[in-house]
Write a structure and sequence with these properties.
Blueprint: H1 6-14, E1 27-29, E2 32-34, E3 43-46, E4 62-67, E5 73-77, E6 83-87, E7 94-101, E8 107-117
């Protein structure tokens, strides 16, 4: 019978982990708007839960929002801020992507959707 020492190999591999990108998180409120909403419901896209968990927590993150609905309107904030409030026509589901970048230039993205409900 042959025995293999696995823990030494795992420990050596773990000690060689390099810099990691930040973790993007999106909170959407409300997650659904009425179909045919005609820009009446304000939707808050909040990326403040994003973090650079393995690096210096005090380091600021850069934010970039992308919305796949050209009819979307910014009511408050901007696409380079952690929080942006928007309205939509309500004629389709909208994909929202948040990319966060740390001071070292490492970035990561996450996508969620603003759904529709029947009136």
């Amino acid at each position: 019978m042959r025995w293999v020492l696995v823990s030494a190999a795992v420990s050596a591999a773990c000690s060689q982990i390099g810099p990691r990108p930040p973790v993007p998180r999106i909170a959407i409120d409300p997650e659904f708007i009425p179909e045919g909403d005609a820009h009446e419901t304000a939707v808050t896209l909040d990326g403040t839960g994003s973090a650079d968990e393995l690096e210096d927590e005090a380091a600021p993150l850069a934010f970039r929002w992308e919305v796949d609905d050209p009819s979307g309107r910014i009511e408050e904030g901007a696409f380079d801020e952690p929080v942006v409030v928007m309205t939509f026509a309500g004629d389709r589901v909208v994909s929202v992507t948040l990319t966060v970048t740390d001071p070292q230039g490492l970035s990561a993205s996450v996508t969620q959707r603003v759904g529709l409900t029947a009136r």
